[in-house]
Amino acid sequence: MYKQELAIIVQSIIESNTISNHTKCAKALSDFYKKINSVTFSQDNETAVSGGIALSSLGAADCVDDYLRTVFFIKGIYKALTKLCRDFPDRSINVLYAGCGPYATLILPLLPLFDKERINAVLIDINAVSIVSVQELLKITGLEEYQIQLLEADAITYTIPENFQIDLAISETMDYALKNEPQVAIVQNISPQLPAHGILIPQEIRVDFMYTFFDYEPYLKNAVTEVQDYNNLQSYPHGVFVDRLFTINKELFAKTNPIYKFESDFYKLPDNFKDHPDLCIFTEIKIFDDVELKTAESYITNPYCVASRYSLDHSEIQLVYDFSGIPQWSYNLKN
Q1: Angle subtended at Cα 324 by Cα 197 and Cα 259, rounded to the nearest 5 degrees
Q2: What is the DSSP letter of 227?
Q3: One digit per residue, pLDDT tens: the chain, 335 residues?
Q4: What is the pTM of this model?
Q5: Rounded distance, CA 16 to CA 12, Å?
Q6: Nearest to residue 284, comparing CAs of 270, 297, 295?
Q7: Do 43 and 161 lie in a common domain?
Q8: Do residues 35 and 145 both lie within one domain?
Q9: Are 176 and 30 contained in the same domain?
Q10: CA gap 296, 26 in Å, rounded
Q11: Same structural domain for residues 310 and 186?
């Protein structure tokens, strides 16, 4: 019964094409999880790892209520799986889901849409409660017949077995402006282990630097009640694009030695900054193909203010993103 109900919900997510439909479908999935869940989640089991803070089981469960994030990631992953099934019609598609959380939201709902022989997935999470929860959900939904391996492991150091070539790697472990959580460290570990054809989800995380008025930029505060399409969001009209700082993708880390810091060029600060006094980071996410999350459509694409021009009496600034510990932004100044 639950398997069929889940299939109907996820099919409606894939077919949804308006904000109201996205919201309705995402709420249905959230309600479904809460209805069948039998595991107690905690806010007290966050885990500090070498590249950030892994969310508690409760914090990870709450992510399903970031409605457009849930819908767009599921849509993008479905497109990626469908492509891989076409490209490799005679074998299973190998999936690695790094940081699956207690609901495995980005792969478990999609399983009923594929034959059980077609998906061979490894789901890892550092939180033991999350692993127990996913195991229970697979049983309750009748999906335990699928080829799903659950591992309690740190995705930042996880090594893919030699006999398991990954076709699709998924990791959505990020906060806005790539702060706090270990997304970048996980991607740095996983990317070099992918084959040439392997797909990384998200495909791109684009990080831009702008001078703007932060208080006037769109900012999502409640994803349940304030969901808006990017086309309906009003960006601050006097913002000034400065530069694309970097793009996180499979190619960035594929053949490089480990790095733990990005440093920008030095940028000349504007003398007249009345209309754009804030130095801000903007993040947009290409999940797969044409499926994207734009500014303030999700908590993870909210803008982030690094500094105010009013507090800086220097002429040039360099932005620094350091993810050797808890990921954070800082800056250097020079006259």
Answers
A1: 45
A2: -
A3: 799 999 999 999 999 999 999 999 999 999 999 999 989 988 888 888 889 999 999 999 999 999 999 999 999 999 999 999 999 999 999 999 999 999 999 999 999 999 999 999 999 999 999 999 999 999 999 999 999 999 999 999 999 998 899 999 999 999 999 999 999 999 999 999 999 999 999 999 999 999 999 999 999 999 888 888 888 888 999 999 999 999 999 999 877 678 899 999 999 999 999 999 999 999 999 999 999 999 999 999 999 999 999 999 878 999 999 999 999 999 999 87
A4: 0.96
A5: 6
A6: 295
A7: yes
A8: yes
A9: yes
A10: 17
A11: no
Residue 195: which of 172, 176, 167 has the closest Cα? 167
Residue 209 and residue 281 in contact, taking contact as beta carbons nearer than 8 Å: yes
Listed residues 183, 204, 225: the one ending a domain: 204
* 183 plus 199 within the same structural domain: yes
Q: Which domain holds residue 295?
A: 205-334
- Tell me how many degrees the CA angle 224-101-253 measures, rounded to the nearest 5: 105
